[in-house]
């Protein structure tokens, strides 16, 4: 059974920092694209940051210069360092991975989500 598990969410004051981590486990053959998405109440899910298997990154305009995505291919993990947090960053953050597993072809997998709340 393959799954993605996020950690690191919580409550932080404006201007503060948080680091989110996501670990993939199970009978994984390979992982291509990994990303962090977020969804705030009454808003659509949006891509926050993504990273390819080769390390190429892309970010939403709203987080450029503040967030940094990274991955460890040996450990099958992806992280999101979030600095200078703003109230509008408040959302449930979801880990995403495009993976191939032992008995299945490549498809999308999602984590359960972790809450990030930015408030004083």
Poorly predicted segments: none
Instruction: Report the end-to-end length measured between terminal Cα atoms.
Output: 40 Å
* Total number of strands: 11
Query: What structural category arises from helix and sheet content?
Result: mainly beta
The average pLDDT score comes to 96
**Count of DSSP H/I helices:** 0
Apparent shape? elongated
Helix content: under 10%
* Computed CA radius of gyration, to the nearest angstrom: 14 Å
Largest sheet: 7 strands, mixed
Order of helices and strands: EEEEEEEEEEE
The portion of residues forming beta strands comes to over 45%
Could you walk me through the main structural features you see in this protein, from its secondary elements to its overall organization?
The protein has strands at 3-7, 10-12, 18-25, 28-39, 46-51, 57-59, 67-72, 77-82, 91-101, 104-110, 114-118. The chain has 120 residues and is mainly β. The strands form two sheets. Strands 2, 4, 5, 6, 9, 10 and 11 form a seven-stranded mixed β-sheet that branches. Strands 1-3-8-7 form a four-stranded antiparallel β-sheet, with no helix packed on it. A hairpin with a 6-residue loop joins strand 4 (28-39) and strand 5 (46-51). The model has no long low-confidence stretch (mean pLDDT 96).
Task: Please give a quick description of this structure.
The chain is mainly beta and 120 residues long.
